[in-house]
Design brief:
Radius of gyration: 34 Å
Oligomer: single chain
Strand content: under 5%
Largest sheet: none
C-alpha cells in the first residue's frame, strides 16, 4: 500500500507565511539591486579643483586681433592671421613658436637670411606664408615676433603712425559731396548685385592664398593638393556640404577654418568653392 504524498504546509498559518515570503523575497532583492546601482553620488568627495580640471574644455578659440590698413599689421597680428596654422603646431616641419632648439638654428642664420626665406618661401613654406597681401615689413615683423619667443633680440620694422581722423569742423563740408553722390550709389546698386558671384570667387581666392595655401598648395600632411583632380575626387564625393562642414569644424589634422578662427563661415565656404572649381 503506497503512502500518499504529504505537503510540508500543515496549517493555515504556515500557508500565509509561505505566501508572504514568496512576495517579499523578490521585492527585497529588487530593492537591494537598485540600491547597489544607484547608491552614492560619484565624485562627491572629489576636490573641487580636480573636478573643474576634469570637465574643462579640450581647447579654446582665440580670435585674431583686428588688422589695420595694408602694411600696418604688427608681427603678432600677422602671426595670428597667417603663420599660426603651421608654426603653432609644427605642421610640415615648421619650427613651433617658442621652441628654442628649433628656432636656434634659424636665428643662427641671421636676420637677412631668415627674412629672405620668409618672403620668398623655402621648402614646404610658401612665399609670405601663403598670404600675398603681406608687405615685406609685415613679414619681417612676424619673423621678429616668432624669433623673440625663442630669445632673439632682432628689431622689427616700425609700424607707421595712422593718419589722424578729420577734425570735427570739416564734417559739414564733406557731407555735401556725400549727399550729392547718393544718387550715383543708388544707380550702381544693380551692378553690384550682378557681380556678386565673381566677387565671391575673388574672396575665395584671397582666403585660399592667405590661409589654405600653406597646406593645400603643396599637398602637405595629406591635404589634397590645389588643382589635383585625382586627390580631390574622393573628397568631392562627399558632396559640397560635407566639404563645408569639414573645413569649418576641422577634420583629422586639419584645424577648424584652416587654423584661422577670424574667418567667417562664408569665407571658408568661398575658399572651398574656389579649390573645388580648380579640381573639376
Amino acid at each position: 500500500m503506497t503512502e500518499e504524498h504529504s505537503s510540508p504546509i500543515k496549517t493555515p498559518k504556515q500557508l500565509i507565511i509561505v505566501v508572504l515570503v514568496a512576495f517579499a523575497v523578490p521585492i527585497a532583492l529588487a530593492g537591494f539591486l537598485s540600491q547597489l546601482v544607484t547608491s552614492g553620488e560619484h565624485g562627491i568627495h572629489e576636490n573641487a579643483d580636480a573636478v573643474l580640471a576634469r570637465i574643462q574644455p579640450v581647447g579654446t578659440v582665440v580670435l585674431a586681433e583686428a588688422t589695420g590698413p595694408k602694411g600696418m599689421m604688427t608681427g603678432e597680428q600677422v602671426f595670428n592671421t597667417t603663420c599660426k596654422t603651421c608654426h603653432e603646431t609644427g605642421l610640415a616641419g615648421a619650427p613651433k613658436l617658442g621652441d628654442k632648439a628649433a628656432w636656434g638654428k634659424i636665428i643662427a642664420q641671421g636676420e637677412a637670411t631668415t627674412y629672405g626665406h620668409a618672403i620668398t618661401g623655402i621648402r614646404a613654406m610658401p612665399p609670405r606664408g601663403g598670404n600675398s597681401d603681406l608687405t615685406d615689413d609685415e613679414v619681417k615683423r612676424a619673423v621678429v615676433f616668432m624669433a623673440a619667443k625663442a630669445g632673439a633680440t632682432w628689431t622689427a620694422p616700425p609700424v607707421a603712425a595712422v593718419a589722424a581722423a578729420p577734425a570735427a569742423g570739416s564734417a559739414p563740408a564733406a557731407a555735401a559731396p556725400a549727399a550729392a553722390a547718393a544718387p550715383a550709389v543708388a544707380a550702381a546698386a544693380p551692378v553690384a548685385v550682378a557681380s556678386a558671384a565673381p566677387a565671391a570667387a575673388s574672396n575665395g581666392k584671397k582666403v585660399y592664398e592667405a590661409t589654405c595655401i600653406a597646406c593645400h598648395g603643396a599637398g602637405i600632411a595629406g591635404a589634397p593638393k590645389f588643382g589635383d583632380k585625382a586627390q580631390w575626387a574622393p573628397h568631392m564625393g562627399h558632396g559640397v556640404e560635407g566639404l563645408y562642414a569639414s573645413a569649418i569644424k576641422g577634420k583629422g589634422i586639419m584645424p577648424a577654418k584652416g587654423g584661422n578662427p577670424a574667418l567667417s563661415d562664408a569665407d571658408v565656404k568661398a575658399a572651398v568653392d574656389y579649390m573645388v572649381a580648380a579640381a573639376k
